[in-house]
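Q: My hope is that you can spare some time for a protein that puzzles me. Underneath my words sits a plain record pairing an amino acid chain with its backbone structure tokens. Those tokens are not coordinates but codes from a learned vocabulary of shapes. Thank you; the sequence and its tokens follow:
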Amino acid sequence: MNFLSKVLQGIAFVPAVVNGIEGLFGSRAGTDKKDAAMSFVQAALSITDAIAQKEVVDGAKFQEGLGKIIDGTVECLNASVWAKKQTATS
């Protein structure tokens, strides 16, 4: 599979990962939840394989970019009706 296609598919399920992590680790610190989300997304994208095959030439920058995607997703979710549902059920 083309690496770009793989990345775009991975990004597509970030909201579901963030929602699932929130359900599992809701009472933990935001950094713990972000680390868990990063682990799930990186595993799904097989980042280790991509680095080994030179599809990702700067792993640190790639991880930083994934972190920004996750942060942005959290901001969007927190600004939406989703956040109101979470606080109503807590």
Q: What stands out?
A: The chain has a mean pLDDT of 82.
